[in-house]
Amino acid sequence: MNVTLISTYDLGHQPFGLASLAAWLGDEGAGVTCNDTAVSPLAEDAVRASELICIHLAMHTATRLALELLPRIRALNGSAHICFFGLYGPPNADILGDFAPCSIIGGEFEADITSLYRRLADADNRKIEAVMVSMDKLAHRTPDRSGLPGLDQYASLKIGPETRIVGYTEASRGCKHLCRHCPVVPIYGGRFRTVPVDVVLADIRSQVAKGAQHISFGDPDFFNGPGHAERVIDAFHAEFPEITFDATIKIEHLLSQQHRLAWLRDSGCLFVTTAVEATDDHILEILDKGHSRADFILAAKLAREAGLVLSPTFVPFTPWTSLTGYRDLLQLVLELGLTEQVAPIQLVIRLLVPAGSLLLDHPDLHWASFAPEKLSHPWHNPDPAVDTLQRTLAAEVESAEAQGLSRAEIFARLWRLTHEALGDAAAPINLDASGPEIPQMSEPWYCCAEPTELQRARL
Ligand code: SF4
Fold it and tell me: Separation of 177 CA from ligand 1 center, angstroms?
């Protein structure tokens, strides 16, 4: 039976979800076509010829793009069973149900989709459950990346004049934390699952053989299981001492595992992405982030002392953000010397409240009804000037990046515009970019944006 696996966007990486599923279905004898529409056109012939079409909904932007693509897929093939899988599947079941016959699978998806494939292949047993979330521990298989575009088609890492080809893998999935704004939580509910070290290593090996010079670990939090992370990195670094890596680690874990920071650096970690989200303790408490402003400041200091580059991410615009609070966030980024380490897009992101968000259960918060076209619950800041500032700054970042301005130059513009919004003169700032080169991905990490015109045009 023919199967087409589609990913619309995976943060600029070669899609791990497709590669993993391709290995499972390939072992079943399926005729698998992998189609990453972020870098290739829709594989129309494969879609027409498939009885099962699996679409990975790993995040908000990917889901928005998939919804734009689905009418075309259905026009090409009205009878294929469509399986939506990934974090954004189950919470959006009502909308996705319009594309029946379909099923929706969240959590540890590979075994359930394999079982779905078997039932579809068995004419006497085509009973399909509509929505499933599985937390079963899987016997992971080495992802099969042979049907995907080359790594040079994806985001690369820049360090000064040098560009490195980036591979991507996952040593764990899910998360043991319950941050209220996080899309992982409605599916994994505070649980995480590890991928065996030998499978992670085999996946890295296959990507290094295809040119990867740097590996991004996409685990929601690399230190959910620090012992597992240590075994993975020790094995990886022993085999590939010249290959660098990055990972995402929350502030709380950077503090509790501070004895591992120098080890990360010595093992080839070029930078750690950390979701700071806010610098106001009240907002951090609403989000249940598990850290305070003081914790962020301490983590930045410990990372600097360990020689580890920290790359903070933020959700600076929320219903609780004030103009002065936003200026304070910029001020703290400046004082901590992090202006070169924060991707400008991170300074203009608006909170996204997707279906199933734990924020909807907060007794003191009231949200507008779900807006299907936005896949989120809309909100406005009680001070309209904050929403206006967000729009102004977002447009500024887009235009400044198109002009090729540096992060320091863009920060200076945001600083000035924020002071103008407050009616204050902006204090002069010294943005000395003469320090060591900060590694930067050519496509910054964020997953909650409106699809861009470029992304739409590729569909
Ligand atoms: S630590 Fe990160 S991945 Fe885990 S629940 Fe919080 S935001 Fe989500």
Answer: 6
Mapped onto helix, strand or coil, the DSSP state of residue 302 is helix
Does the pTM surpass 0.90? The reply is: yes
Type of residue numbered 80: A
pLDDT of 294-315, one tens digit each? 999 999 999 999 999 999 999 9
Instruction: Give the C-alpha distances (Å, rounded to integers) separating 144 from 59, 160, 204, 399.
Output: 22, 33, 12, 39
φ, ψ dihedrals at 313, nearest 5°: -115, 155
CATH class of 2-134: alpha beta
Is-same-fold flag (2-134; 156-442)? no
Domain 156-442 has CATH 3.40.190.10: no
What residue segments make up the domains of the chain, in order of their start? 2-134, 156-442
Atom of ligand 1 lying closest to residue 250 CA: 1
Q: Relative to the CA of 176, which ligand 1 atom is closest?
A: 4
Whether 220 lines ligand 1, by a CB cut-off of 6 Å, is: yes
Best mutation site among 60, 175, 180, 286 for ligand 1, i.e. most ligand atoms within 8 A of its Cβ?
A: 175
Ligand 1 within 6 A of CB of 182 = yes
| Structure confidence by residue, pLDDT tens digits, 419-438 | 999 999 878 887 766 667 88
Per-residue pLDDT for 450 more than 70? no
